[in-house]
């Protein structure tokens, strides 16, 4: 287990720096927020959009902080699966990662590709579906070069993106000087809570740090530092851009357009500057999210394959020593199916958000159980106050469950809930069939079982030697 935690497949890798990990988290987060959900949520909440971004940040910080702390205690690749599988239940861990993989591949990836294609539609006179497919294919081919190259590309794109967004905010806010929304513009509590529930999706990229424990330099410190750096940067950018894109709306206006960022930019910039802005910011932001999502899907599957739940052949590298082409191609094909399925963007956004939310429930339960199990006198490298992290985990768990209820209720009312039980049932059936197969093939071994106490002691010994 020590070797697994230190390397990937026994092969030492060059580590991701704190700066690279922070940029990775920022890039994974921003695309889905400002440039996709601003239009979806803004269509019902209007000029209250910036406030909803701010409110959504609070419970998500509380929920992500304990999860990021897990990366400090037990650095590992594929943390979204690794922690629940070792400290809660292999079945619960697998169902969570199964639902996430399906919703991310069939929902989130197509959502980002379609949104990027819509932004670039004026520059490429081809159908949205074809352009979406070309965008998806480009990032699929890019990820064949492996983690090190992709992280370098991701870091470069994020630096340019943040500079572009800061310029947009700096120019637009003094021009529009948005007023506070009036009471008559309030969209009602149902729309407000639904909007906040959807906007929680925009902060999940900050959680990506726990997926790269093995690949991070000094993960005991840098994983949590990357979260603390990326989360406030993203929050400030979200609120700033949301204020900028609602500034052109007159008082008593209740609805934003489908693409409020482009509407605001058209008013603010000359045509040639607007063209550069669209290429520079929205396309770049969504590109970092598509690119990063491939990384998360690959990393999330690492230990699922290691444990034998997914077949080992998915890890074969062939002539590409830095990537896993079979697994990557599988995610690519699932995303292509999502592109051609014809689901509407709101449905894709809702299921994608649920995929992330369902990951958080077992992760927070794991933290609470682990924090209680470990005695105070043991030298545990908690990054900040244990009491604060424990309180955050309880509040985060409450809010996550609340948001799940809101989204499920909305899907039920709209008649879009039918896929949910099928996705979980398919995962359960696959798990039971695979477990039975492994029991027959390896009768002397217990599949999907680990000694928690020994794992904790092993990790302490590793920390002592480091």
From TrEMBL:
Transmembrane portions of the chain: 21-45, 51-75, 87-111, 123-142, 149-173, 193-214, 226-249, 272-305, 326-345, 351-370, 391-409, 415-433
InterPro entries: AA/rel_permease1, APC_superfamily
Record key words, sorted: Cell membrane, Membrane, Transmembrane, Transmembrane helix
Keyword Cell division part of the UniProt annotation: no
GO (cellular component) term, any one: plasma membrane
Membrane topology, from the record: Multi-pass membrane protein
Molecular-function GO terms, alphabetical: transmembrane transporter activity
Superkingdom per UniProt: Bacteria
Entry's localization field: Cell membrane
Pfam families given in the database record: AA_permease_2
Name of the molecule in the record: Amino acid permease
Taxonomic classification: Bacteria, Pseudomonadati, Spirochaetota, Spirochaetia, Leptospirales
